[in-house]
Amino acid sequence: MTTVRDPVHQGRLKTPFFPRVEQLDFLNEWHEWKGYSSPNALYCGDLEYFAIRNGTGVFDISPMTKYRITGPDAMEYLNRLVTRDMAKIKAGRVAYAVWCDDQGQVIDDGTIFHLREGEYRLCSQERHFAWLQAATIGFDVSIVHETERVAALAVQGPTSFSILNAMGIKGLDQLKPFGLMHVDFQGVEMMVSRTGFTADLGYELWIEPSKALDLWDALFKAGELYKIRAIGTHALELARIEAGYLAPYTEFLPADETVRTGRSRSPLELGLEWLVDFKKPNFNGRRALAEEKRRGSTWQLVKLDIAGNKPAHSSYIYAKEKGKKKEIGFITSAAWSPVCKQNIALGTVRAPHGKPGDELWVEVYYQREMHWNRTMAKAMVVDKPFWFPPRRGATPPGPY
User: Fold this and answer.
1) Within a domain: residue 290?
2) In what order do the strands lie in the sheet containing 202-207?
3) What does DSSP say about strands 65-70 and 142-145: parallel, antiparallel, or unpaired?
4) Phi and psi dihedrals of 169, rounded to 5?
5) What residue ranges of the chain have pLDDT lower than 70?
6) Do 77 and 139 form a contact (C-beta atoms < 8 A)?
7) Residue 206: its H or E element
8) What CATH code is carried by the domain that includes residue 91?
9) Are residue 164 and residue 229 in the same domain, yes or no?
10) CA 400 – CA 394 distance, rounded (Å)
11) What is the pLDDT of residue 10?
């Protein structure tokens, strides 16, 4: 008998939830995420997106890079590493953070979970084990790469609280945004964090791989009456843009990956000045960022509300100067938002352009039946996320 291997997954790792995700796959559209198979979409990207906004979408985030950081100097180590003040992040809380090189350019962003006193988990897009280890000199800390030891699901949408409540998770009504708690699930510890990448009410579940399939089954049984659906990356990407969240290799290039000068970005250029705390002790890139703050940044991240309904993928951005349109930047992410009924985008423009209320122009190209069309669309710079429902910050969220 000849064994035929599926060429889509050949040579790729499979997450602990893969058997359940694969059963729901009708499209066979997958991509590689840090060595793992991850679906672009499972049945219909549009319907999967509406699961996030009208019910609950479940996305397998197990391939996310995870590091366990422990030891007497864990907090001091992280405080030296990232730009925000980790001393303010108490046990049971989660912090969004960025870390930079000595030139103040962003290497990556991610979330840092303060699990217990002296115990943290850093989650990121890229792998940084060698760099994290090199940065331990002078600190009494231990770093463990635990990506394969932790299975994780993003459970996002207005019915997510109701579903997890129906599973019997106690104390969820007191969990605030960016909070975490530990609960028992079938005899093992499961961490529940009120975090996500969708700008909506949502949670992330973290558990040992041996219980992954049991967790999936319990979650989907509890969600039968609450419009629960598994989703792929395309749906999550649209929700991310509506949230105004940044994505590595899209809104910025990791500083340690760039070849040409001027291609990386600082936190100040990415609209993340609120994450840079100059009042705390020294941290990576502090001197360069202080100098940039003094002299001003070169680039500015913008959120754009664009006229029309043609997404401005990879478009140039223009400003009017002396009666003429001058190219000042480009779009990094773009989409037509079904829930906002807006043509939205994230982009990067040269300072001093990009202030909220600025009127800019976007050069949009789109194709209809093989023919390309070009239009110049007006765009307004906005300073708020495109989608931010009240339930996202409500505690308790209430049933839905």
Assistant:
1) no
2) 180-185, 188-193, 202-207, 151-156, 56-60, 228-230
3) antiparallel
4) -75, 115
5) 1-7
6) yes
7) strand 202-207
8) 3.30.70.1400
9) yes
10) 13
11) 73
Q: Which one, of 180, 190, 183, 181, lies nearest residue 211 by Cα?
A: 190
What pairs with residue 13 in β-bridges?
A: 36
Q: So what's the pLDDT on residue 6?
A: 59
Q: Are residues 76 and 130 in the same domain?
A: yes
Task: Copy the structure tokens of residue 298.
Answer: 């070169």
* Single-letter amino acid, residue 315: S
Query: Distance between CA 222 and CA 55 in Å, rounded?
Result: 13
- In sequence order, which residues have a C-beta less than 8 Å from that of residue 275 and are 6 or more positions away? 83, 84, 96, 97, 98, 267
Q: Can you give the pLDDT at residue 2? A: 39
386, 379 Cβ separation under 8 angstroms: no
Are residues 302 and 167 part of one domain? no
Q: pTM value?
A: 0.94
331 in a domain, yes or no? Answer: yes
Q: Cα-flanking dihedrals φ and ψ of residue 352, to 5°?
A: -90, 10
φ and ψ of 80, to 5 deg: -75, -30
Alpha helix stretches (DSSP H) within 191-279: 212-222, 233-243
> The domain containing residue 104 runs over which residues?
65-148
- Domain-terminating residue out of 148, 180, 206: 148
In a domain, 265, yes or no: no
Tell me, yes or no, whether 111 and 221 share the same domain: no
End-to-end CA distance of the chain: 52
Do 51 and 77 reside in the same domain of the chain? Answer: no
CA-to-CA distance for 121 and 136, rounded, in angstroms? 15
Is residue 274 a part of any domain in this protein? Answer: no
CA distance linking residue 380 with residue 342, whole number of Å = 12
Both 138 and 155 in one domain: the answer is no
Domain count of the fold of the chain: 3
Q: Taking each helix axis from N to C terminus, what angle separates 233-243 and 45-54, rounded to the nearest 10 degrees?
A: 50
**49 plus 92 within the same structural domain:** no
> How far apart (Å, rounded) are the C-alpha atoms in residues 48 and 211?
25
92: left (phi over 0), alpha (psi -120 to 50) or beta: left
**d(C-alpha 300, C-alpha 355), whole Å:** 9
Cα(365)–Cα(367) distance, integer angstroms:
7
Shared domain for 33 and 94, answered yes or no, is no
